[in-house]
Amino acid sequence: MALAAHQAGSLRWLGGGVIAVVLGVLLGVAAVAxxxxxxxxxxxxxxxxxxxxxxxxxxxxxxxxxxxxxxxRRALATTPWxxxxxxxxxxxxxxxxxxxxxxxxxxxxxxxxxxxSTAVWRTRTVQALDGAEVLAAPVGGRQWVLTADGLPTLxxxxxxxx
Length: 162
Known about the structure:
This protein is an alpha+beta fold.
């Protein structure tokens, strides 16, 4: 399921971040022990700082993505998927036209969305779906998720104000 893939990615970010922080702390302890014995290793302090900072970024990214996964799972449990067409309006701007959408009817408007992710591969994957039939569901006040048959993940999008 696409939501399980999103959760797995979240856990990878979280786990990788925790591992980097732990390695940074252990390497920091080793650096202090080496400095105490009179040995100096060039750039070891910089490596420690980089490991801890990168690890903290991974922990924050993984925690945020994991919270989004839980929020999406809760919303998708009560919200049905809608079938429709996806239209690409720009690099990260898309329009979802629900099934039964009539372009000639002035009362109907597509749902205009902007992708949440800035990852190039996600943007290109969604752009390749121009005109394709997709599944979409609202998962919050102004957020939607999208997927299509054969895609192993979900794409988050935010409603674009007019």
